[in-house]
Design a protein that fits this description.
Layout lengths: L2 H6 L4 E3 L6 H12 L3 E3 H9 L3 H7 L2 H15 L5 E3 L8 H8 L4 E5 L2 H8 L13 H19 L2 E4 L5 H17 L1
Parallel strand pairs: 1-3, 1-4, 2-3, 4-5
Helix pairs in contact: 2-9, 3-5, 7-8
The chain binds shikimate-3-phosphate (S3P).
Shikimate-3-phosphate binds next to loops.
């Protein structure tokens, strides 16, 4: 891709339920677009000096959400690809920020698809000690309308491989420049 085209492309924010591929697709986009990736979960872990399950256990979910909102506010709008945590859309202030920094891209995946991918992952405090599919179904019911409210583009995560999704996002970003 030409340098000038790369410079003009808008910088996307990736949203969606945990395990839908935000970080891995973010890494692919970062490589192709030569734009840094900021993964909000990684920033929070680095700054807190604790893993996400530790933050949830040591403080509580609200504290994690405070760190998440602060990290979002600090990094949104910069020339980076932003991979968010699945719950970033829960707070109204975060949704407002997301909506004022398009394009926001929702990688939409069903609870069944995700449950299969993250079975047994110890790094998911919201699923700890519960049936993953039941909990993900609850989270999807609560969050789908919020993802939808923020999204400029919805991608059906299940119908495509990650490389094809990456290309589809790049095509969309190029179209944004032409508009
Ligand atoms: C969460 C998703 C996680 C992480 C935290 C809370 C959520 O991020 O932020 O465990 O509320 O869905 P990923 O979506 O990157 O897994």
């Amino acid at each position: 891709m030409k340098k000038k085209t790369l410079r003009l492309l808008p910088h996307p924010v990736l949203i969606g339920l945990m395990g839908c591929g935000k970080s891995s697709i973010g890494r692919r986009l970062s490589k192709k677009l030569k734009m840094p990736l900021v993964d909000l979960d990684d920033i929070i872990v680095q700054e807190a000096g604790m893993s996400i399950p530790e933050i949830f256990a040591h403080d509580d979910e609200q504290h994690f959400r405070d760190l998440e909102s602060a990290a979002l506010a600090r990094h949104i709008g910069h020339r980076v690809i932003l991979a968010s945590g699945g719950g970033v859309i829960l707070r109204e202030a975060n949704r407002k920020l997301l909506k004022s920094h398009p394009p926001v891209i929702w990688l939409k995946a069903s609870p069944e698809f995700i449950a299969h991918r993250i079975a047994g992952d110890p790094n998911r405090p919201l699923l700890a000690n519960q049936d993953a599919l039941t909990r993900l179904t609850e989270l999807a019911a609560e969050r789908y309308p919020l993802y939808s409210e923020c999204a400029d583009l919805v991608i059906d995560r299940e119908s495509m491989e990650k490389d094809d999704i990456t290309e589809c996002i790049i095509k969309y970003l190029k179209k944004c420049v032409k508009k």
